Amino acid sequence: MLYRKMPKNGDKLSILGFGCMRLPTKADGSIDEERATKQVRYAIDHGVNYVDTAWPYHMGASEPFVGRALADGYRKKVKLATKLPSWLIEKREDMDMFLNAQLEKLQTDHIDYYLVHALVGELWDTVEKLGVTEFLTKAKADGRIRNAGFSFHGAAADFNRIVDAYDWDFCQIQYNYLDEKNQAGTAGLEYAASKGLGVIIMEPLRGGNLTKTVPSAVQDIWDEASTKRTPAEWALRWIWNHPEVTVVLSGMNEETQIEENLRVAGEAYPGSLTEAELQLVKRVEQKYRELMKVGCTGCQYCMPCPSGVNIPLCFEHYNNLTLANNPDGEKFMYAARLGGAVALGTPEFASLCVQCGQCAEKCPQHIEIPVVLESVVQELEGPGFEERVAMAKQMFKQT
Which CATH number is associated with domain 3-280? Predict the structure, then answer.
């Protein structure tokens, strides 16, 4: 495992962090705690020392799980990160209420890295007026948190002013080879680093969209490389190639993913990619832009939908119409997974959307979700849809 120093405090952090937003789940959607605990502890035993969670992850179940997973001495082996749910703050007292509840959920007396969660410009203005900087300073002084930071999902124009608004220790941004100019982007990464902030990276694989279903046109480009690597390794190495990056979070939920990520995290030095390799990644980025329909990362901030639409899953299949090069198969899987043939049996189609707009307000990617859902209906719920639903239910033995 390679380590990089947090600039302001000198902490040596593993370049690979364990993100607890996409833990393995059971058929009913709950965390598969036995398996997830083994995964988290295995990663820690092999050098990972940064574990990240948040109040809303797994519909509130992630923090309590992490508290249990870090029992038996594992809490002392890691730097623990969680986040203040900024969108739920209505008054200054709420901040202490959430932090104290999180300390209890996580079974700890302090949070090593505490973030103001999912900031955009307007939300920052709101929590700043409510006293969030005073709260952070007080929480650091009384020992409940050790380092103060923020995670960002806003427009580039707001990023620098938030960096400059407080004596932050670190920040967390979405960054991958498709997001060099999106949100904070490369300019934000470099600006934060120039101000002495450690930079934690989220969504390195764009919610798995860079690895789940690799289009043949993209794979053909990867295959040109003299050094053969998986799409996940290429994506991670591209980020770690930047010396400004401190930690990359991975939402690992398969044992093979953990093994691969651990291996790469022992080799990926900054500046280690050649110019030819960087140009190869650039070509892959350009090809993806030609193919993708919607920039959803699957973060689930838009969920739950009051009308029952499984928005991330709808968008996954919508993108896969072109990414997977199998439109008929995707239409069938959409009918099966969203129609209730698989899992809980409750329909979650895009056509259930009533255009309330609540999802669009919550989306970190600023996707006009109701508008895109209309396109999902047109392309995935067209002729033959009811027949595909019936066939899927028969296949999965549901009546």
Answer: 3.20.20.100
